[in-house]
Write a structure and sequence with these properties.
Elements lengths: L3 H10 L9 H10 L3 H4 L2 H5 L1 E3 L5 E3 H46 L3 H16 L3 E7 L11 E4 L4 H5 L1 H6 L3 E4 L2 H7 L9 E7 L6 E7 L12 H18 L1
Parallel strand pairs: 3-4
Antiparallel strand pairs: 1-2, 3-7, 5-6, 6-7
Helix pairs in contact: 5-6, 5-10
Length: about 240
């Protein structure tokens, strides 16, 4: 009969086999030892990954495939950033050209003419309207510059805009379009209405387009604000 002490000694001398490491443990080990595959390159020749189609490829081929995909995504993103930068540069140059034209314009009529040409040629905007409050402007003989009288048709149509002085962008109804752009050769389907001198309430600038998608309610407003400031400064200089 084997003594108990002998059984215990045998058990201690023959420990149970170590447990197989889990997948998480293997991944953690590889992350902690990134040089493993470099130090043991023979593993790269034996490791295989299965494609969705069922064929097997080496780990190196799979890594190359992943790197190519990542490179393609990065290249596409870089191209988008480059295109955006070019568009911004072009727009900045066009705004600078507009500013020069407005500064050099000797009269209100020339201001409107220069503004129309710039919007059409540089910004693909079809129609322009400049409305000035009746208290600051009484004339009716300058094409494109309209006095906005209290209780008048424009004031009634844009009573909310006049009250809030907030930029409005989006589709425009036929009645409003004809009110602002009566000489438009083609129907104006979208427009942006921007205050001139928001605090002093000089008037309003409206830009119209035959493209229904040209002006959208959630579009950026920076270009519109800059354009309105340039126009307001030029108009104010000719009124005084």
């Amino acid at each position: 009969m084997v003594e108990v002490s002998t059984v215990q000694e045998l058990a201690a001398a023959d420990p149970a086999p170590a447990a197989t490491p889990s997948e998480a443990q293997v991944l953690e080990y590889l992350k902690s030892h990134p040089q493993l595959l470099i130090e043991h390159p023979q593993l790269l020749e034996t490791l295989e990954l299965t494609h969705a189609a069922g064929s097997a490829v080496s780990l190196i081929e799979r890594q190359v495939e992943l790197l190519r995909g990542r490179n393609a995504r990065l290249e596409a993103r870089l191209n988008r950033l480059i295109d955006t930068a070019r568009d911004n540069e072009t727009r900045a140059e066009n705004v600078l050209r507009l500013a020069r034209s407005l500064i050099r314009a000797p009269s209100l009529a020339n201001i409107v003419s220069a503004l129309r040409a710039s919007m059409r040629d540089d910004f693909d905007i079809d129609e322009v309207f400049v409305g000035l409050n009746g208290g600051a402007y009484k004339r009716h003989d300058i094409d494109g510059v309209v006095p906005i009288e209290i209780g008048g048709p424009i004031a009634r149509a844009y009573d909310n805009f006049i009250r809030t002085r907030l930029i409005e962008c989006g589709p425009i109804g036929e009645d409003r379009a004809k009110l602002l752009f009566p000489k438009a050769e083609q129907p104006v389907l979208s427009a942006a209405v921007v205050p001139l001198e928001k605090e002093k309430n000089l008037g309003m600038l409206a830009l119209g387009s035959r493209d229904a998608e040209r002006f959208q309610p959630r579009q950026g407003k920076l270009f519109l604000e800059i354009t309105a400031e340039l126009v307001a400064a030029a108009v104010r200089a000719r009124l005084t």
